[in-house]
Amino acid sequence: MVSPTLTRPPASRARLRSGTLSARIVATAARWIYDGRRVDMQGLADELGVSRVTLFRRIGSREELISRALWLLTERMLEIVVARWEAERPEGELHTPGTIRHINAIVSQDTGLRRLLDDEPALTMRVLTDPRGRVQTGIVAFIEELLRRDVAEFGLVTLIEPGALAYALVRLGESFLYADVLAARKPDVATANRLQQALIEGILP
User: Counting C-beta atoms within 10 Å of the first and last residue's C-beta, which end of the chain has fewer, N or C?
Assistant: First the structure.
């Protein structure tokens, strides 16, 4: 059988350079957010050695850039939490609850994200919680995959189908982790952990 990759036309050098530049822009913005720096388009352009026109042409709006940068940071976080929980997970324990606990811990302690939420709460929450955006949809898909793994490996019986449960778990986490922005309440990681585990296992908290 001929490998599918061999049948694809070679990418042009211009397209490769464009893709590389876009990735560099997003990675730089992600680093700035992680470090607690404001994502300033002119500053990014200066650091990358490109014009603002090039920056906007490659990425689009500033909000789109922040969305892509936050998703990049989220992807890296998800890799970390899986590795951490799987390294410490007792034999027979579900994959989902422990992984979510690690997610909650990292998100609640992320100083860069907290700075972004403090400085630009409306924009940040819009990016983080948009049901059509890459961050929330990506996390929901990740949690659904974990739930289906627990169903297959441990016979977990969920109260509702895994896709809907994953969405509920993510929305519940958001309501407690971002409580200060959403409802002027103190974020409550412990309660989020208990309620999410109860939903997953179908038990009373």
Answer: N
Q: What is the pLDDT of residue 184?
A: 79
Are 33 and 70 in contact, with CB atoms under 8 Å apart?
Answer: yes
Token reading at 151 = 């169903």
Residues 6+ apart with CB under 8 A from 203: 197
Rounded Cα distance, 193 and 177, in Å: 10
97 pLDDT higher than 50: yes
pLDDT band at 19 (very low <50, low <70, confident <90, very high): low
User: Do 35 and 54 form a contact (C-beta atoms < 8 A)?
Assistant: no
Task: Give pairs for 108-112: CB < 8 Å, separation 24+.
Answer: 108/177, 108/187, 108/189, 111/36, 112/33, 112/34, 112/35, 112/36, 112/73
What pLDDT sits at residue 81? Answer: 97
Tokens found for residue 101: 């606990």
Chain centroid offset of residue 135 CA: 5
- Stretch 136-153: mean pLDDT: 97
Q: Is 143 helix (H, G, I), strand (E, B) or coil?
A: helix
- Cα gap 110→91, rounded to integer Å: 30
DSSP at 186: -
Task: Read off the tokens for 13.
Answer: 């050098």
